[in-house]
Amino acid sequence: MADNAPTTAVLLCNLGTPQAPTTAALRSYLAEFLSDPRVVEIPRAAWWPILHGIILRTRPARSAAKYRSIWTAEGSPLLLWTQKQALMLQGWLAQAGLPTTVLPAMRYGQPAIAAQLQALMAQGVQRVLVLPLYPQYSATTIASVNDAVNQWSTGVRALPELRFVNGYHDQSDYIAALAQSVRQHWQREGGRAEKLLISFHGIPQRNVRLGDPYAEQCHATTELLARELQLNSGEYQLSFQSRFGRAEWLQPYTEPTAIALAQGGTRSLDVICPGFTSDCLETLEEINQEVRDAFLKAGGQSFRYIPCLNDSHAWITALSRIAQQHLAGWPVADKNTSQIAA
Ligand SMILES: C=CC1=C(C)c2cc3[nH]c(cc4nc(cc5[nH]c(cc1n2)c(C)c5CCC(=O)O)C(CCC(=O)O)=C4C)c(C)c3C=C
Ligand SMILES: [Fe+2]
Ligand SMILES: [Fe+2]
C-alpha cells in the first residue's frame, strides 16, 4: 500500500454487462441480473420456473446476437465508457484538490461491487462515496446498487465510512451537459430535426404505483432539458424503451411513438437517451438500430441518434461536481501530513 494513497474513494457504479457476446456469457449475466428481487419483484416460487425454465433457455442466444452487433475490439461499450469515466473523474477530482481513488464497479458481472470495495480496503481507504451512473432514482437500479454494497458490508469487520448518492436527475451540470450534447449534435447535422424524442429506460408501471419516483424524475429531467434548449411543447416528446415481459411498463413506449410520429408526418427525428450516461446495448442497438429501422419503415426520412454523455468534458465536469457536493465535509487527508484539503 502506497503511503500517500488517498484515503477517500469513489465507487462509480453501473449496471453491468456480459463478459462476452456469447450465449453462455449472456446466460450467466442474465441469471444474475434477473435473479435480483429489485429487478423482478414476482415471488421467487413463481419466478424461478419462468426464469430457469423459459427465459434462460431462450433469451441468451437472442441477446448475444444483439450484443455482437455493438461489441468492439476492446469489449462491451458500457464497460469501456465506465472505465474511462472513472479514470477521468479521478483526474478531475485531483485537479480540484481532492486526491481520491475512483474505481468502476458493476452491479452484475465484472468488476463486481464487492471485489472493488475489497480492493479499496486493501489500499487503506477509509471513506467510500457510492456514485451510481443512473441520474434518475429507481429501486430497480440505485437501490439495487446499495443492496450490493450493504450485502458486502455484512461480511466486513472494520467498515469504511459509506455515503450513497441517490441520483441527480435535476442537477444543473448534468442538465447543462445534456443540453450541450444536443446543441453540438444540431451544429454537426446543420440544424434541428422536426422533433426531439427523449427516451428513457422503462420500468413496470406497478413499481411507480408502489412509490418508485423514477417516472416523475424522468419527466422532471425532460422538462429541465427542454427549458434549457428553449423548446416548446410541440418540439419534443418523452418516451420509455426496453420493455421486458408482458406487464404494463411506463408509457408511451419508444418504438410505437417513433412509428406514430412517422405515420403522422414527422419526417426527421433527433433521439436522445438522458437516463443512460454511457452508450450500451439499449442505445446502440435498441434505439440506433431497431427504433431507427421502425421509424424509417413507417415513412420517416431522417433518424439522428445523439450519443450518450460518455466521456464528454461537460459530463465529467458534472460528475466531478456531483462527487464534490457529496464528498463535502469529509476530510481528504494525506496519510503523511494529515493535511486536510480545503
Ligand atoms: C438506465 C436505467 C435502467 C433501468 C431503470 C433498468 C431497468 C430494468 N432493466 C431490465 C431488464 C434488462 N435490461 C437490460 C439491459 C440494460 N439495462 C440498462 C439500464 C437500466 N435498466 C442498461 C444500461 C442495459 C444495457 C447493458 C449493456 O450491457 O449494454 C437487459 C439485458 C439485455 C437484454 O437481454 O435485453 C435486460 C434483460 C428490467 C427487467 C428492468 C426493471 C424492472
Ligand atoms: Fe435494463
Ligand atoms: Fe433492450
UniProtKB/TrEMBL annotation:
Class of enzymatic activity (EC top level): lyase
Gene Ontology molecular-function annotations: ferrochelatase activity; metal ion binding
Record key words, sorted: Cytoplasm, Heme biosynthesis, Iron, Lyase, Metal-binding, Porphyrin biosynthesis
Subcellular location: Cytoplasm
Superkingdom in the source lineage: Bacteria
Keyword Iron-sulfur attached: no
UniProt-annotated binding residues for Fe(2+): 201, 282
PANTHER family, A to Z: FERROCHELATASE (PTHR11108), FERROCHELATASE, MITOCHONDRIAL (PTHR11108:SF1)
Name of the protein in question: Ferrochelatase
Organism: Comamonas flocculans
